[in-house]
Predict the structure.
Amino acid sequence: MNILSIETSCDDTGVAVLRAQGSERPRFEILSNVLSSQTEIHEQYGGVYPMAAQREHEKNLPAAIARALKEAGKVKIEYVVVTNGPGLSPCLWTGVNVAKETANKLGVPLVPANHVEGHVLVSLFSHGRKLELSDGIFPAVALIVSGGHTQLIVVRGLRDYEILGETRDDAAGECFDKTARILGLGYPGGPAIAKAAESYKGPETDLPRPMLHSPDYDFSFSGLKTAVLYHHREQPDKVLASPDYVPQMAYSIQEAICEVLVAKTKRAAEEFGAASIVLGGGVAANQRLRERMEKIGIPLLVAPPELCTDNAVMIGIAGYLTILSGNIEQEVTADPNLRIV
Ligand code: KG4
Ligand code: ZN
C-alpha cells in the first residue's frame, strides 16, 4: 500500500511517499522524502514564529507534494495521512486543509496522525537503515525529546502507550534553543550547541540538573536556562571574549540536559523491565545523548538523525498503524494539544 504523508506541525514542511506492507509486522520503504526547512526565517526571532511558519507551509506545500509524488515514480496512492496534532494551530490547519484537498483530488481517504507518536514509531521501526520491527523489543520505554515535547512513555506494543512523565515547563530542545540564544549561537540551538561543544575537553561549568532526583518521571528545564542566563550576565567582558567561554558553556549545557534525560530514562527502563529504549524527536539527533543512552546497556532504538527531526516519513508510519486498526475518523480536525493517549 502506498501512502502520501504530510507534516506541518512546526517549522518544517515535510511530504513523503511510503510503501507500507504487512499487518502483524508492518514494514516500510521510503519512496520519497521531501523536506523544506524554514531555519533562516525563524533565525531572526530566535524561535518559531507561528504566522510566518504558516505562510511558508502554504507557499511550500504544493511544490513539495508535487516533488514527493514525482520522486516516488508512478505509484498509485491509496491514502493521504496528515499530522493533526500536537503542534502550532495555524500550521496544523494549513496541513490538514491542504491534505483534505489532496485526498479529494486523488479520490482516497484522509487519515490523521499524532506527531509525537510519529517520533516514537520512526525510532521504534528503525533497524539499521531499514524501517521494520526488531525482535523482542517490548515493553519499550520511549523518550521523546524535541523543541516542543519532552515525554517518557511506556510502549507495551504497537499503539499501546502509557505516559510516565513529561516536562513541567520548557522542552529539552527549547532549553537547547534558548541557551544557544543566550550564548549568541544560531537557531536551532541544539545543533549549534553540539557543534560548539564538540572539541571541548576542559573543565565543566557547574550547572543545575533540575528534578534529577525527584521520584517521578517529570522534567523541568527552565531553571537550567535561567542559571545559564545569570551565569552569562555575571561574567566580565574579558571572560565572555575568551575563546573557551562558549565551548565550555555549550559542553556544560549539553552534559546537564543529557544527564537528567539519561538518568530518568534508565530508572523508567529498570522499573518497567524494558527490553529496549526508544529515543526520538529532534534532540535525539544529538550524538552525545545517543552515546550516553547506549551506555545504559539496554538495546537502543533510534532513527538516523535526519528522521529524528521533523519529517513526513514518521507521519506515514503512524498513519499506517491507524489504517490497520480500521478506526479512521470521518472528519479530520487539527488539535494543537493532541495527546498520544
Ligand atoms: O522534532 P523537532 O524537529 O521539532 C519539534 O517537534 O519540536 O525538534 C526540534 C528540536 C530543536 O529544539 C532543536 O534545537 C533540537 O530539536 N535539535 C537538537 C539537535 N538537532 C535538533 N538538539 C540537540 N542536538 C542536536 N544535534
Ligand atoms: Zn517534532
About this structure: Residues 2-136+307-325 form a domain with the Nucleotidyltransferase; domain 5 fold (CATH 3.30.420.40). The chain has a mean pLDDT of 96. Residues 10, 146-148, 173, 176-177, 188-191, 194, 281-283, 285-286, 309-310 surround KG4 (ligand 1) (CB under 6 Å). The chain has twelve helices and twelve strands.
